[in-house]
Amino acid sequence: MQPIKAEQMKFKPGPIAGVIIRELRKHTDERGWLAEIFRQDELEPEYYPVMAYISMSLPEVTRGPHEHVDQSDLFAFIGPSNFKLKMWDNRPGSPTFGNEMTILVGEDHPSLVLVPKGVTHGYKNIGDKPGFVINCANRLFKGEGRREPVDEIRYENLPDSPFQMD
Fold first, then answer.
1. pLDDT in tens, 2-37
2. Is 8 exposed, middle or buried (0-12, 13-18, 19+ CB in 10 A)?
3. What's the sign of the alpha-carbon dihedral 89, 91, 94, 97?
């Protein structure tokens, strides 16, 4: 799949079909807190995680934008910083094709966000301290045994990309 050219696509603000945003409920006691990030009874089987990873982003660091051909991402933005998450519906058959969404997530708004395959996405740490993001992806990175190509179309280094974080 070839990256889209800026002159080929203009996005407008609006919801994106298939994106699920759920506030993470922190259950707090004298030891700290706990929040559920995956429950099999709350997702369709196509989104069940097969691997999970955690990343830490320094202040002002942007990850993406990129999209996946087959992978969906189930992100948990927990802090201790805040992030600006942007998503663009880049799926020609989608009822919300051409829409873009921007939400603030992280320490002030702990959130779980399901990003379906084909939805371009990126996030930026907009806080003043490092922040953590957990991803429970429904596909293995580089496939079984890490023997397949990475399922990713990257846009962050394309100067004429229609997917701009700022």
1. 555 445 678 999 999 999 999 999 999 999 999 999
2. exposed
3. positive
